[in-house]
UniProtKB/TrEMBL annotation:
Keywords: Cell membrane, Electron transport, Heme, Iron, Membrane, Metal-binding, Repeat, Respiratory chain, Translocase, Transmembrane, Transmembrane helix, Transport. This is Cytochrome bc1 complex cytochrome c subunit. Heme c 2 binds at residues 175, 178-179. The chain crosses the membrane at residues 260-279. Binds 2 heme c groups covalently per subunit.
Length: 282
């Protein structure tokens, strides 16, 4: 006998396709533009956070200058700087881009005579300034107009009336490994060097900290606050004005110079005295 089999009738394909979608299916559907919208929101939030971070780390407000000063700076730039940095300051194989370096970088480099460079080398040396103060301000205004960057520091941060003790501690922790504890400078690798800081203006010291010229790292306001930068400047100006309590400081180069001085002159004097006594007795 053949066993009875029961089959369940299935709805036709046409019936299934004409069946209205349930509420769960409607709720789970995603609009085709949803992914694009999420990407746009993510990019907007990322850009906003980046802009806020850059604003928080800026050391000074961008320098506000007249359009006349900017135009004059552009002419000076194209005549004296475009060969290395490009007509639009975007950089070439001979010089970096200046977009975003701010007025502080231009004021430091040009104001100390490091720029324009006389020749390519491991480091731009300090030399006599080739521009007037008005021209330097115009160049700074032009570069600052290209993109936001560190501005010229406020005079209140350069008065040298901060905490010299705190500034000395900060300098020893962050700067002394290159510039020496007394700011006397020192040699680095591959022909580079950290310059001495005696005789450097407070404005240029501050600008160097916020722009990081040559091999120097950048110390923005998250690394060293403006008041701490003021303290460092106060310390440097204090040791510049006050003589070393130990007498002849031998260039403040530390124990190597002192040991060499003692070996040459101290031991030499002992040998000379011994020879003199021996000759005298004979």
């Amino acid at each position: 006998m053949r066993a009875n089999t029961h089959t369940t009738a299935r709805p036709s394909r046409q019936a299934r396709s004409s069946r209205p979608a349930g509420p769960n299916r409607k709720a789970g559907r995603r609009h085709p533009l949803a992914t694009i919208a999420l990407i746009a929101i993510g990019l907007g939030l990322t850009g906003g956070a980046y802009a806020a971070f850059n604003t928080s780390t800026a050391s000074a407000a961008p320098t506000v200058a007249s359009q006349e000063s900017v135009d004059q700076g552009k002419k000076l730039f194209q005549a004296n700087c475009a060969t290395c940095h490009g007509l639009n300051a975007t950089g070439t194989s001979n010089g970096p881009s200046l977009i975003g370096v701010g007025a502080a970088a231009v004021d430091f480099q040009v104001g100390t005579g490091r720029m324009p460079m006389a020749m390519q080398g491991p480091q731009a040396p300090e030399k006599p300034v080739q521009f007037t103060e008005a021209d330097i301000k115009a160049l700074s205004a032009y570069v600052a107009s290209l993109a936001p960057g560190p501005g010229i520091p406020d005079a209140s941060l350069l008065d040298g009336k901060g905490n010299a003790a705190n500034g000395g501690e900060l300098f020893r922790v962050n700067c002394a490994m290159c510039h020496n504890v007394a700011g006397a400078g020192g040699a680095l690798t591959e022909g580079k060097y950290a310059p001495p800081l005696k005789g450097v203006s407070a404005q240029h010291i501050y600008e160097a900290m916020v722009t990081g010229p040559q091999n120097m790292p950048v110390f923005n306001d998250l690394n060293i606050s403006p008041s701490d930068k003021r303290d460092i400047i106060t310390y440097l100006k204090y040791i510049e004005k006050n003589q070393s309590p130990g007498g002849f400081e031998l260039g403040s180069l530390g124990p190597v110079a002192e040991g060499l001085f003692l070996w040459i002159f101290g031991v030499g004097a002992v040998i000379a005295l011994t020879v003199w006594i021996t000759a005298k007795s004979n």
